Amino acid sequence: MYTISSLLLAVPLFAQTTDGKSSDTPQTVRSVDLSRYVGKWYEIAKIPNRFQKQCIRNTTATYRLRDDGKIDVLNICETEEGTLDSAKGIARIVDNESNAKLEVSFVNFLGLQLFWGDYWIIGLDSDYQYAVIGSPSRKYGWILSRTRELSGQQMEQVKSILQKNGYNFDDFEMTEQTD
Question: How far from chain centre, in Å, is Cα 6?
Fold first, then answer.
């Protein structure tokens, strides 16, 4: 089943490449150590999208490095009925210099991955505790964390990253994370 967003799965680092000014295209972080990025991430907030409309709470993304250099993605969320919905996908690195631009696909037809979506890491904490994910169109965006919530200071840093990259924080919907 592939109903959760493929873009949720990449987890960013807080190494900004911008000079504090918004540009026509969001700026990715300078470098992502994929071995540190993989693992489980909690969705803190997202720009609402059609492929996650069933997700009411407890949305997570788990990434795992593959031997072929790609990344397995597993997105899980809880629906209004209390059931779990999951989507398995694959991410591929588009920018091998930084590892900050990826594409994700959740559609597999006869062994071929179809319909790749941009997954750009535009913000990443130096300790890989939170990440900000965007896309060139700014139609999609996610705030991810290794924990179920961000501190006030971390949230202010995230808001600054979003603003510098031309996003409006008010477009994001907070995700409920429960125990």
Answer: 8
